[in-house]
Amino acid sequence: MQLSTYARVLETVDPMKAVGKPHTLWIAFARTYESNNQLDRAEEVFERATQVNYKSVDHLAAVWCEWAEMEVRHNNLEKALQLMRQATAEPSVEVNKRVAADENEPVQMKLHKSLRLWSAYVNLEESVGSVEATRAVYDRILDLNIATPQIILNYASFLEEHKYFEDSFKIYERGVKLFKYPCVREIWVTYLTKFVKIYGKTKLDQPRDLFECAIEKASLRDVKPLYLQYAKMEEDYGLLRRALDVYERAVKSVPPSEKLSIYEIYIDRAESLGLEKYDRYMSKPLSLASQMVT
Fold it and tell me: How much is the pTM?
């Protein structure tokens, strides 16, 4: 009874005129067959659902993702990967020309640029595919110019996990060029953290240059954590003098409301390092901090 009801409803629904999300009817229809252990019939429903011209590309992408997830649930991993490859394939030149002539472009023509679909695809490849295949999917996302900051972070992390450190830094570099503040903030912070971890002890000039670049591009409200991270690197791997110079630069660069907190950190670090006696480092921050408090 339930199956016949879905069938009748779907025959009468016009997805271009329907209010709501008609693609969910197709998904529910397929799930009903799946729950009855009729996987072949469920696949037939999904196949029909992928041919429907929905209002939104995201609706079509959801259908493909649900289909692939069903195959994964039944351990049909290669079938799931094949579906993702099929869904993300770019339409041929001939198909593009034919659709352009009709002046009525269906959502299927835009599917290959769906971030939802590509995100599902790359997650699947990471889970069950090879490193090379996963990298190829990430690279295609970047080539299509649909990557988000989170995609950049995920790709770089994936490469790092597989010991491709230099390649991961290249992805971070692409990310800081693709995005601007505030979207790029987390990319910069993660990039700098990872870079310092690898090169802080051996090639200090390189992370220094990277910090200078990050600070130059940062907005006024985003610069404080970069200076603090920079100073910490100098304390851990570089020169104390340079660390305190970074704090001094930070005081001049941060918004007025954040200057006192920088002075407090500056004084605390100088005292903890035994520099109370050195007027060069202590007199100015103590004086200015006192003025700001009063």
Answer: 0.84
